[in-house]
User: Fold this.
Amino acid sequence: MTKTHKIALLPGDGVGPEVIAVARDVLDAVSAQTGARFSYSAHLIGGAAIDASGDPLPQTTLAGCLESDGVLLGAVGGPKWDRASVRPEAGLLAVRKALGLFANIRPLRVEAALAEHSPLKTEIVEDVDLVIVRELTGGAYYGDKRRFSDSASDLCIYSTGEIERVARVAFELARARYGKVTSVDKANVMETSRLWRETVTRMHVESYADVKLEHVLVDAMAMHLVKRPRDFDVVLTENMFGDILSDEASMLAGSIGLAPSASLGVSKPGLFEPIHGSAPDIAGRDLANPVGTVLSAAMMLRYTLGLTKEADAVEAAVSDAINRGARTADLGGSFGCREMGDAIIKELHAAALPPGHRMPMHWG
Ligand code: NAD
Ligand code: IPM
Ligand code: MN
Assistant:
């Protein structure tokens, strides 16, 4: 009998529910076409959960995640909760920690048809194909936070083991790709960065000498990313630097709305989410680009559910829809979030037909 894959949906806040609804429709289309079976359970997280129960990560949500095979998350946060004593973002940090998701994989590929939408020149961004491996459960995000009468502190702490396990992911990924790791730190100032650099260097010598390794300081990396992004393959970095560099890198492809991510740990389930936030400025207006979430669902099919053909089909359908001109407002188009999802689903269906039966389709 075909296995039913259990998927926990965490729509969250702002545009989160809009992009998750589209990703679910795409998964349903995959299911109808390939026979892969999915069952869904939806749970509150972030501001929506604070409103319902006062807790950004209710126990029922965590339990729902733990009994699933994969978790698909929209986004959390928004101005409504910016001054609340408990923030929506705490729910996201808590679920990452509780599921042990120490490696956040953020691939960034530039679709040729979208290169002109990047704020950077086409000749700089075309053919970019890099992946940021961001450490996700350590550093200043999780260190002790203090508030004093006239000062505040965030402790940034990394253990050798935390660095080793995420560096291993980066080296293995590089071996399966173009064979290069760029490790990004601030070793000229931060002690955690000096430990980071020593640890990555030792692992390289001991176990990964076949992979090319370079170390780059984070401030310079921010510059190199917009000057010569094609030179990078796997970019390995700590939590905070990875957060910042990945939003910057997303613009190489034209919009933050395109970028997916996979957060992986020692065991299942993984968590899959676009890198963008709840986009309060466009929420509730069917304006969000759902591609980052749809591609996150494809990463879930590939990495956690083992459905490689299905993942390939979703990624191809996204490219095909873009190549036929489907564009949301962030890319200068007039497609709504739903309409963009429908365009992707149409391509999925078209690809399933034998070549002679495919209908020519044109978008706007
Ligand atoms: P944001 O990513 O929400 O938005 C930044 C800009 O990008 C906005 O102009 C927005 O309209 C645009 N944008 C984002 N996603 C888009 C999409 N799918 N399609 C089209 N345009 C899109 O970042 P922000 O405004 O700094 O943060 C808003 C809230 O989201 C904050 O509360 C923040 O903490 C939260 N946040 C959550 C996550 C997450 O849940 N993973 C990630 C980042 C930020
Ligand atoms: C992201 C977000 C989160 C982060 C916030 C909302 C906690 O910016 O997923 O990139 O900083 O990790
Ligand atoms: Mn971020």
